[in-house]
Amino acid sequence: MAVDTLETRELKYFTAVAEELHFGRAAERLGMAQPPLSRAIQQLERRLGVRLLERNRRGVALTGAGEVLLREGRAALAATAAAARRTSRAGRAGGRRDRLVLTVKAAASHELLRGLLDAYAAEPGAAEVEVLPSGTCEQEDMLRDGRADVALMHSPYNSLAGFDSEQLLTEGQIAVLPARHPLAARASLSMADVGDLPDLPPARWPRRGTYPPGPGPEVRDQTQLAQLIALGRTVAFFPASARSWLWAEHAGVPLIDAPPIVTHIAWPPHSRSPALAALVRTAVRLCSPPTP
User: Fold this and answer.
1) Pair 54, 110 in one domain
2) In the 8-state DSSP scheme, what is residue 221?
3) Contact at 8 Å (CB) between 286 and 115?
4) What CDD domains does the annotation carry (predicted)?
5) Which residues, given as ranges, of the chain have pLDDT below 50?
């Protein structure tokens, strides 16, 4: 095999070891024995002519070359998975190409999303749009692995790296608090006011299957978060437009010094879908200021 060619199997093996930093756990994750996994990584290193992993009694660590292969390998595996998923979806649709999957963070951009779907549906030849709610920052993974064709994403929380995008709107942030909390009666708050509340630690969302460290509760979906806020167990931060889904037990208080949230519509750069292009044009037109 040529040095400039990598098999999907090799990338899966290496990525598992690089993420686990432990051959035993990686082998268990892959459903294989450890010795053939170790041999496969050694063969890969010999063929590429570089050391990818440092091995010692304390464990496994990535070399500089290993970090590059992990980053590129993840992207390559995501692209392969995306191709398979989009091909499978096209087959299930009977070969029709006029269907889009749009993912958006659950309960975010509600008014924008409703306006966009209505405006696009009125366009001649509009495609069917399936809306796929996601957790925090999951839109990026869904675009990369082919579960979605297009996404509404929010910077600075979402990364737009590797995608084409158009900016749609900018808005402030609110702290979503229990309505009975003393701070809920304030006209506005600063980040310092809510950044370290011992009685309301911020909720934690999973990222790539794991939760960041912290005292706040681990949440899996928007309904669970809403209930924990109503019960006085946590606080969360959202774009101001999230007021549309607040319960009576919630209070949304403006955060005067929080960075603005910029909503983008984003899609994979290799897309050649006319339906997607039409949806993007509709979103940009909908959010453009009126011409004087």
Assistant:
1) no
2) S
3) yes
4) PBP2_LTTR_aromatics_like
5) 95
